[in-house]
Design goal:
It is a single chain. About 65% of the residues lie in helices and about 10% in strands. The protein is built from eleven helices and seven strands. A hairpin with a 2-residue loop joins β2 and β3. The longest helix has about 50 residues, at about 135-185.
């Protein structure tokens, strides 16, 4: 299967990727996935921090240490980096992932070719050793055999080296896949994050517009969460959010998409679900949260949530329109005393 996209950008990034491992080997830099990413960005040339750090290293007598790797890598890919930098990094991650796949295929093919050539040379050498020839021809043949043996040994080394590079690149690809997952996962609750939600919401809305399959949204806000933080501290607040996330996921269906929207708000996409069925699922989730045995310093502390639900309509100009209705419905539930559910069909929604 041909893995190469027919684009100028991809070909350029592929050429960059081919330079990285030889360069790292020349300068005795460990071939870890993190270092591979750093030096790919160095050759790509768009990150001043990377270029400055690597150039300082090249002009010094110091070794590239694990501390150097961690410092540069964490600044580039920390989950706390700003949104614009995270998006740029995700583009680089995808680009390097695609190029490493191509290189893995190439190195595997080259290693197999080297191995087959080595086997053929071994056979030829054994046959040649059995031959009895005289004088000058014998000397010439002996010299040729020596050269062939050297080539054969080099071929074996090449095959081993290429296999090693392939393993290095497979490790890089696995790390990049993990990084992509991290970029779309909320660090605290391990649900999908806001970026993943936006992507999924847009794709489900597009699918709805094509086939009309019903899809509902649920927006959940933890009641009085600020009081939990103010009275018991952020660590307790974090535990409360993790518990609500766990309870919500367990109370819904495996096909439902769950995400932390931000702060104490969670959002859920209920595919192939009409509004009336979404209400039943929301009520089920509300009861589960209300009855949870959440304790603070040994004392039970009830947690409740207000929930707003909506669904896609063909008249919606964009997916966010349904989310806005769910948000208004959630605030209506709050205004009615919390720990309740409101739908976009509620007659009082226009007052919000």
């Amino acid at each position: 299967m041909d893995l190469k996209p027919n684009t100028k950008l991809f070909n350029m990034s592929l050429e960059i990727a081919r330079q990285v491992l030889p360069f790292m080997g020349k300068h005795s830099i460990p071939a870890t996935p993190e270092n591979y990413m750093i030096f790919y960005l160095y050759f790509e040339g768009s990150r001043p921090l990377v270029n400055e750090t690597v150039n300082d290293f090249l002009h010094s007598d110091e070794s590239w240490t694990e501390e150097t790797t961690n410092r540069v890598f964490e600044q580039l890919f920390s989950p706390r980096a700003n949104l614009r930098m995270m998006r740029l990094n995700e583009e680089i991650v995808r680009q390097v992932r695609d190029t490493t796949r191509v290189i893995i295929e190439e190195t595997k093919a080259a290693a197999e070719l080297a191995h087959r050539t080595s086997q053929r040379m071994d056979t030829s050498l054994k046959e040649a050793d059995r031959m009895n020839v005289d004088s000058a021809i014998s000397q010439w043949f002996a010299s040729t055999l020596k050269d062939v043996r050297l080539i054969n040994e080099a071929n074996r080394n090449l095959g081993g080296s290429l296999r090693s590079k392939g393993e290095d690149l497979e490790a890089v690809t696995a790390t990049l896949a993990k990084m992509e997952t991290m970029a779309l996962t909320d660090e605290l609750t391990q649900l999908a994050n806001r970026r993943a939600w936006d992507q999924r919401l847009a794709s489900e809305f597009e699918r709805y517009m094509l086939n009309g399959s019903p899809c509902s949204l649920m927006l959940v806000d933890v009641d009085d969460f600020k009081n939990i933080n103010d009275n018991h501290g952020h660590m307790v607040g974090d535990q409360a959010l993790k518990e609500v996330a766990r309870l919500m996921v367990n109370s819904l269906r495996p096909s439902d998409f769950s995400a932390r929207y931000g702060g104490d708000e969670f959002v859920f996409l209920l595919t192939r679900t009409k509004l009336e069925d979404a209400y039943k699922l929301a009520e089920q989730a509300r009861k589960v949260i209300q009855s949870a045995n959440f304790t603070i310093r040994g004392k039970r502390r009830p947690i409740t949530a207000s929930i707003g639900i909506s669904c896609f309509h063909t008249s919606d100009p964009k997916a966010d329109a349904a989310l806005e209705r769910a948000d208004k419905a959630m605030y209506l539930a709050k205004s009615r005393g919390k720990n309740s559910i409101c739908s976009e069909n509620d007659p009082d929604l226009g007052k919000i």
